[in-house]
Amino acid sequence: MKARLSYVNRALAADLATESDTVKSGIQKRPVDGPVAVRLMGLQGDEQADLSVHGGVSKAVYAYPHEHYAFWQTVRAQAGVAAWGDTLAPGSLGENLTLQGLLEIDLFVGDQLRLPNCLLAVSEPRFPCFKLNAALGFKHAVKMMAQSGYCGSYLVVLEAGTVAAGDPVQLLPGPREVNIRELFFSRIRGK
Description:
Elements: E1 4-10, E2 14-17, E3 22-25, E4 30-31, E5 36-39, E6 42-43, E7 61-65, H1 69-78, E8 97-100, E9 112-115, E10 118-125, H2 130-136, H3 141-148, E11 153-159, E12 161-163, E13 170-172, H4 180-190
Parallel strand pairs: 7-8
Antiparallel strand pairs: 1-4, 1-8, 2-3, 5-6, 5-12, 7-11, 9-10, 9-13, 10-11
């Protein structure tokens, strides 16, 4: 299967109720129609509330595999926060780009993703924080991401432009030294 961009998602920072508090977060992303501008610091109309861990040049765009959504739908049903068969909305993992056909094992630090109107580079895995638990509605979401390695990847904007749902994505291999899943697990074990 050829890789493609299934959804483009964004959100402004808003209040998010967590287990113990209410915090600002940009994790509650939702799909948008049409082309969206991609700039050095991310998507136009998208915000991150805590720039110490999200956003910036090396984490300008967050991509997540569409293939993992079935896992999260099942886990949420098992946790009793969703009915069996409920569909999890695109962007629910906080990703800007929901990709199809590119998993963490396929992406290596330094790989480039060529879309029709921009060029992105894989920089690092996403490490979940407590806000993921609130976004997915159950307290073990962070633990499940750590165990599964279904983390997605951060991207650097090499060439600004636009992205749109349905865009084809061409993988341009970099040095191929460490894939995102391996890097994620090595850093998780080190914590």
